Amino acid sequence: MRNTRSLALMAMLTAVSLIVFVIEAQIPPIVPIPGVKLGIANMITLTAMLILGRREAGVILLLRIVMGSFFAGGVSGLMFSIAGGTLAYLIMCLTLKLFPEKMLWVVSIFGAIAHNAGQLAVAIAITKTSGLIVYVPVLAASAIVTGAFTGLGAMYVSSALRRLDKQY
């Protein structure tokens, strides 16, 4: 059974990830290519993996995806988010064991690539247009940049939360 402190932290991280997701959905695209965005809410998923564990991070991610679709995505947004989020989560769970915490940015890059692959697969399935595969190089390049950014951010947030925990 979870203790109260862990449950409260899960609730806080879920709320923060949802807020970040909704705010980021309001920001105009940086580049005019569908699917390219920072994915800042993923910082919270990675932080939860480090601080709470993989299972708890999965719960936080699922709650953010479902609630985020109500606030900022709709049904199509839910399909893309579930596909990308699930694939990213699975890849990050697998790669988190392979790299030390100081290389969390690498885990995040793998997660970002998987997220883009999941969303591209949904786009191809919906449109029945295999030609969308031409986006792979651009999506991979953007995943490297955004994944490194969110991974570094998650390293910072995790470190800050641990310092706070030691104080209290």
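Above is the first protein from milestone M3; the second protein from the same milestone is given next.
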Amino acid sequence: MRKRTTISLLSLLVALTLSGCAVQPVTLSDQQSRLVASHWSAGEGSVEAKNLRLPPDQWWALWNDPSLNGLIESTLKNNTDIAQAQANLRSALATLTGATAGLFPTATLGADASRNRREGSSTDSFGADASAAWSFSFGGRDVSARRAAQASANASQLSLEDTKSAMTSEVALTYVRLRLAQTRLDIARQSVRSYEEAKNLTQWRYQAGLVSATDYEQANAQYENAKATIATTRHDILQYQTALSRLTVTPLSEIQAIPEGHIPMPPSNLAVAIPADVLSLRPDVLSARENVRAAMENVRVAQADFLPTLSLSGTIGTAAATVGALGASGTGIGALVGALSMPFLNWGDAVAGTETQKANLDRAQAQYTATLVEALEETENALSGIRSSAAKKASLRTATESSHLAAQLALQQYSSGLEDYQTVLSTQRSWLTAQDNEASNWADWAIAHIDLYRALGGGWTPEAN
């Protein structure tokens, strides 16, 4: 009767342990749901990530820029931040392996041999044994520890994907700025030629006594300033090239060998063909969610210290005077030990450990909310930047064409004596500014798409409609 009662009690404790260790899903709180609903109308998580996400190399290939594709490939292969994230993932997986092993018994095999000599005679002894041990926490410590390790490994995997997104975004951003600087260098060179033409014309008119020395000096100053702009822009180009060399871990000479080109342009439908579920699949959001899950399991690990732990260990073996006699009748040895332990005078440590883990859970929950809010903010800002750049394209193109025509007309009229040099100077400056504004807006358009890529945590498969 007592034996049945003991078995029933153990069964009840096991059932309570397993039910208490059931995995609880981490879902959005009411506050978090309101944030998503007000900023991102379609909710979260209705489509699997694999149906929405594109790997970095495939997404950047949509930009149809071979130089950018090569830089992205080098980044994914060589970048040191990505290499560190990969090492962190391997470490997390090793921890998971250790936590999984803790759920199963441990076993060892051994063998020994000895010779004892006394008073001219010697005796031999040989032995072989196997031992095993296993412990079971009625609070589910090992089960929860394994689940916490699994969640941490998942978070490390997601952090790796987030690092890839961040690094490829930084490379693309630096590449766009490099192309903008090269475009500005072309504009500066064009301006030097224009200012040189105006200077030569002013010099001729000054020598002919048609204008004052002031006009000539102004024209010469404008020409020299334009030449100085070229040196400054070349310095900017070198800075962007060295940044790309660092990010891709590629020799600077290979970066400088990349042929000049235009500012890369994303497909026009990327920003309007975003599946609404992509935001909820942002890697750092999912990683923060896994960290919450790991913190929940660590609370259970700490709470398990309040409940008893059953430990079982056993040994079987054989010992004989000769190797051939091992295993014979009468040479066997064995032992089986069981122990039940629970805290008694160290409840203070158990309470403190539990409170510490609960504080870590609160911290993880707050970080999850902060990451979600940041994702929403970055996404809305990137979409606003795309809309703003798109709205200015036509006006800036018209401004560039009109200012160019005005500069040509002013120079012609000045050569005919119908305008003063201040008009020439003003229209040339307006043309230079208009060209720079248009080029900057094209770069802003590309950068806003890069910001959107970063805000959404990676590339996505555009919706057909």
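Note on the second protein: The two ends are 72 Å apart (CA to CA).
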